[in-house]
User: Which sequence fits this backbone?
């Protein structure tokens, strides 16, 4: 399987979000195992990532949703995956840093779960190879859900007898283990996608879907502002890692990707986030340091924060006030329909 799928897409000609053809755009269907889903308008099914050892089925998705929203599998019963990746806040956290058990704060802003179907590597620094590996971390992280061990997580889930039939439906037997818990949560997360935004409808031929200001913003995004260099393709991310200077002026900056690769050029580099539903995911940057989209644009206008590893793509640009507002209006036009986002009405007892 190709991990850096964006490289492949770029090579095939899917170089920029404005590469959509005029006229109706077919809605793609993705399939894995016995499960399938028709994607919202604008999303490309050939970019979906499913690991070979975790085929999808409806039972697995249903179980994963229960586990994702269930706070009882944290140390004090107060924190779930949805606490920090909240569907009412774009599957992120409205705080710069999320509060876990005993209100302990993490050190990075919670990235969105939306459209993780189209990504392999997870976390701001890409340290998890897929959603399955990512799901293991927060459950035992001392500043998140703070369970003592993965065995403790399994014991807690087993305590609720009604979970066993859900595991049987999902996996063919009622056995509960950490691998299955992570696979179920990941299966659910892959069903949380967003498309059919005003931008997608505009590209499909509805020229009334975008305001004149948003159209100008789209032109700037793909042209003078050069946002498309990093926020490329239909999901508005190239899934790569760059140093844009965020936090690099601090005495002890977060070195991001460098802590994973130990490569000098990766110091201060973080994954380019999707811009889908970005109007709902404030605050911005890996440290939550920018409160609004206008602040983000101002950060880019000045060319980021200079440091030895600053990306060559970060250069000061000149934009008028109306052009900056047009970019904001375009980013708002990337807000679409989010699938499978309603919390469960009840949990297994």
Assistant:
């Amino acid at each position: 399987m190709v991990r850096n799928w964006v490289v492949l897409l770029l090579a095939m000609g899917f170089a920029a979000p404005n590469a959509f053809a005029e006229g109706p755009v077919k809605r793609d269907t993705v399939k894995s195992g016995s499960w399938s889903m028709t994607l919202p308008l604008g999303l490309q099914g050939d970019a979906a990532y499913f690991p070979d050892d975790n085929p999808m089925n409806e039972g697995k998705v249903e179980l994963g949703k229960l586990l994702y929203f269930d706070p009882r599998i944290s140390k004090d019963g107060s924190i779930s995956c949805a606490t920090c990746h909240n569907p009412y806040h774009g599957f992120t956290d409205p705080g710069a840093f999320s509060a876990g058990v005993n209100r302990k704060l993490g050190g990075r802003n919670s990235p969105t779960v939306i459209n993780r179907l189209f990504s392999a590597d997870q976390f701001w620094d890409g340290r998890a190879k897929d959603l399955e590996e990512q799901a293991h971390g927060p459950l035992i992280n001392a500043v998140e859900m703070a369970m003592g061990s993965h065995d403790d997580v399994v014991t807690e889930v087993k305590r609720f007898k009604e979970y066993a039939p859900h595991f049987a439906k999902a996996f063919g037997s009622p056995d509960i283990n950490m691998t299955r818990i992570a696979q179920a949560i990941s299966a659910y997360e892959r069903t949380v996608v967003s498309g059919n935004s005003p931008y997608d409808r505009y590209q499909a031929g509805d020229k009334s879907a975008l305001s004149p200001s948003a159209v100008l913003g789209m032109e700037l995004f793909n042209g003078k502002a050069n946002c498309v260099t990093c926020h490329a393709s239909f999901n508005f991310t190239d899934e790569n890692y760059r140093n844009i200077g965020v936090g690099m002026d601090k005495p002890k900056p977060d070195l991001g990707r460098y802590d994973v690769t130990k490569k000098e050029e990766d110091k201060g580099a973080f994954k380019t986030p999707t811009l889908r539903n970005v109007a709902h995911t404030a605050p911005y940057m890996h440290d939550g340091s920018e409160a609004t989209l206008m602040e983000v644009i101002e950060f880019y206008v000045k060319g980021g924060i200079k440091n030895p590893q600053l990306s060559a793509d970060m250069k000061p640009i000149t934009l008028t006030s109306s052009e900056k507002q047009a970019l904001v209006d375009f980013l708002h036009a990337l807000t679409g329909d989010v699938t499978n986002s309603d919390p469960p009405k009840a949990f297994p007892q």
Observations:
- The beta strands are 29-32, 35-38, 194-195, 241-242, 270-271, 337-338.
- The domain at 58-192 is CATH 1.10.760.10 (Cytochrome Bc1 Complex; Chain D, domain 2).
